[in-house]
Amino acid sequence: MEIQEPFQAIADWLHWVLMLDEQLWAEPEYVGRRDGDEWGRAIPGLRHVWNLMRHHGHRMDEFVVIRPTDGWRFPLTFPLAFRDTSWRSFDELPLIPPEKGTRWLAHEERTYQQHLAGNGVRLVAHNVTAFLASEAG
Known about the structure:
This protein is mainly alpha-helical.
């Protein structure tokens, strides 16, 4: 697997999450439920990443760290190690000048810091997807 493939998969998942989030906004109580859910609250932080990529030309590798393992060694021992992916700390992210941001910029940045920074990508993806699946069900 090439190293760029995980970044593309994460970007594709992120796009899906934000499209579904926008569709659910039409439901009157959705935003309150989202903001009241432990993992639903992460979605504005994900929107921050998307905005930096979509509107400011940044790449997913500026937001996600992939730590390679030592690879395969024989004889195999268990548990097997896989690549560890995590969201970068907020201090490592590219900045949006306040005059170029939306009115939600401060909220999205704060949400990124609280719910994404340093967390594993798989953990966030699993839990945000489960929240959205329960909402869309």
